[in-house]
Design brief:
The complex is a heterodimer of chains A (about 290) and B (about 290). By secondary structure, chain A is α/β, with parallel strands linked by helices. Helix content of chain A is about 40%, strand content about 25%. Chain B contains 11 helices and 11 strands. The chains are: A alpha/beta (about 290), B alpha/beta (about 290).
Chain lengths: ~290, ~290
């Protein structure tokens, strides 16, 4: 089984549009939205949810005022300044380390498990999909990413599907690390802007750090052809295949507004053709 | 005043708004780039960096001479950063959240101070803007402590503009918490995050002519003021690609950003936190608070 993860470093370079387009083109696959923090793939996939479950992870301290003697030990111990002078736990600052719970001489601090979000199995017009919603201001997004990826694998196994297409999160931190570990390959979707290149270099470094083979494609390539060439040269120097250029085209936005993939919206447009060529190269590289 | 620029989705123009707003304000501005995973503001501001500081997080280091392998450290650790196997203590530094529990619980005083590199903080100046950003070490998972470090340089006597990371989870919350005003681009999630933190907010709609009218409808429905719209313009996009700022390429925009600041000032003053102006936002599976 193969898993392709699309990442970018910088946001807004077209990860979700690309994964959606690949969903139109690939066969026998599971779709996985690993951008649990701002999940968007479902907007294009219009999923019919077949299973939902709570995502429980971590704990938050909770002081029982009836038992608390206000000795102040918890205030001294908390490294996250999450306990106020009147002994209220700030739930956003609480890291869930449990140190106050352990040391409280009155056993006045509870430590309930958090429900941080929900995850879903769904059916779409392109096949099964796994996605999730992290509650706002919640943490542990890396664990939820790991969970949706595991669920996707299970589903692919059960249904005898040989490909997982994963929409990754932006950045290089915890959720991205959780998205790429053990994947067959990552495709870095970048754009020819100084920010795009800066962020691509960091995310390429990350993929290298975790030994995941990386490939690159340049979206909005005609916005700055000099920088597009710089990206291609960078990829070459780093031993990454550059799969192609996708010209800037507002039909990406138009397709998205209508809830369609660019292949459904206009497969013959220049951008549509470019995406199809990239997919062909990619499926050869992945040996599909 | 502290102004945060946020968005749920990435690539909507946070950095564009933060840099152009700062540049339009002239002097006495502090600009903090809190998107420590992928900091980009410096590409537009081009500051000359004068100071650089490596930031570390304390992690346990075991003094094997004192350790009796009682396992108390491994038991208290909620993050599975410590394991005791026979006469061996394994420390998984990358998982440590620096809560200090192991050190506190160890009866032998066998836990000493180690450290893990989080990233660097760099400070610089350009055109009257004081600039600070953090750069997360590639491979490091935890961004919040570095964001908090960047924010520790906030200065109440200066206008502080914060470029926040995308999303709505811990890094974003670390960037927005206790700020005076938040501006965001689209997405209900970011609105929800600001509401949880009780911060007044307004919207800037970028590429306002490319999508449909849903953002405006949503803003209207929720009573959120739309403070500025930036239409899609290839000239703007190309200038951005080269790291050039909107107010430098098209000087008329400077006036627009100054008016934006006036509106923010007005809203931040008249909308004190804890007013129940916004209806409760739906929150899925979020039982905190």
């Amino acid at each position: 089984m193969k898993e392709l993860v699309v990442i970018s470093g910088k946001g807004g370079t077209g990860k979700t549009s690309l994964i959606a387009a690949f969903a139109s083109l690939a066969e026998n696959k599971v779709l996985c939205d690993a951008d649990v923090d701002a999940a968007d793939l479902h907007l294009l996939m219009d999923p019919h949810i077949t299973k939902r479950a709570d995502f429980k992870s971590g704990h938050t301290a909770n002081i029982d005022k009836n038992k608390c003697t206000e000795c102040g030990l918890c205030l001294d111990l908390c490294k996250f300044s999450a306990i106020s002078n009147d002994f209220e736990v700030n739930h956003i600052d609480c890291e869930g380390c449990g140190v106050c719970v352990y040391f409280c001489p009155e056993k006045a601090i509870g430590f309930p498990e958090n429900t941080c979000g929900q995850w879903f199995h769904a059916e779409t017009r392109f096949g099964p999909m796994v996605h999730a919603r992290l509650g706002i201001a919640e943490e542990n997004s890396g664990k939820l990413v790991t969970l949706v990826r595991q669920e996707s694998k299970k589903l692919a196994d059960e249904m005898n599907l040989d490909l997982i297409l994963t929409d990754g999160p932006p950045g290089v931190g915890c959720p991205v690390i959780a998205s790429i570990g053990g994947a067959s390959a990552v495709l870095i979707a970048t754009e020819p802007t100084l920010s795009g290149i800066h962020d691509m270099e960091r995310v390429a470094q990350l993929a290298n750090h975790f030994n995941v083979p990386a490939m690159v494609c340049v979206n909005k390539s005609d916005l700055n052809l000099d920088l597009t060439r710089d990206i291609e040269n960078f990829a070459k120097d780093e031993g990454m295949s550059c799969l192609g250029r996708i010209p800037f085209d507002p039909i990406f936005t138009r397709a998205m507004v209508q809830g369609k993939t660019i292949i459904e919206y206009n497969s013959e447009s220049k951008a549509g053709q470019a995406v199809r060529e990239i997919w062909n190269t990619l499926s050869n590289k992945l040996d599909l | 005043m502290i102004i945060s620029i946020a968005s749920g989705k990435g690539g909507t123009g946070k950095t564009t708004v933060a840099t152009n707003l700062a540049r339009s304000m002239g002097s006495n501005v502090l600009l903090l780039d809190c998107d420590v995973e992928e900091p980009n503001v410096h590409l537009f501001i081009n500051p000359s960096f004068e100071e650089s500081e490596t930031v570390f997080l304390p992690v346990p280091e075991i003094n094997e001479d004192k350790c009796t392998y009682c396992k108390k450290c491994a038991d208290i650790c909620q993050f599975k950063a410590l394991a005791v196997v026979n006469e061996n203590v394994l420390v998984f530094e990358d998982l440590c959240h620096s809560c200090g529990g192991c050190r506190e619980v160890c009866p032998e005083g066998a836990i000493e101070d180690g450290r893990r590199e989080l990233g660097v903080i760099q400070k610089g100046h350009r055109n009257g803007i004081e600039f600070i950003h953090g750069k997360l070490r590639v491979g490091e998972a935890m961004s919040s402590p570095l964001i908090k470090k960047v924010r520790s340089f906030e200065n109440p006597d200066k206008l502080t503009i914060i470029d926040a990371p995308p999303g709505t989870s811990c890094p974003v919350i670390a960037s927005m918490k206790d700020t005076d005003f938040v501006r965001l681009h689209d997405l209900k999630l970011a609105v929800g995050a600001a509401q949880i933190l009780n911060i007044p907010l307004g919207l800037v709609i970028n590429r306002s002519d490319l999508g449909d009218d849903n953002v405006r409808k949503y803003a209207h429905q929720k009573g959120l003021p739309i403070l500025m719209e930036i239409p899609f313009d290839r000239q703007i996009a190309e200038a951005y690609s080269r790291g050039e700022m909107l107010v430098e390429v098209i000087p008329e925009w400077k006036g627009k950003f100054l008016r934006l600041y006036d509106q923010i000032k007005h809203l931040a003053k008249h909308e004190t936190p804890n007013t129940k102006r916004y209806p409760d936002h739906e929150r899925v599976g979020c039982h905190k608070r």
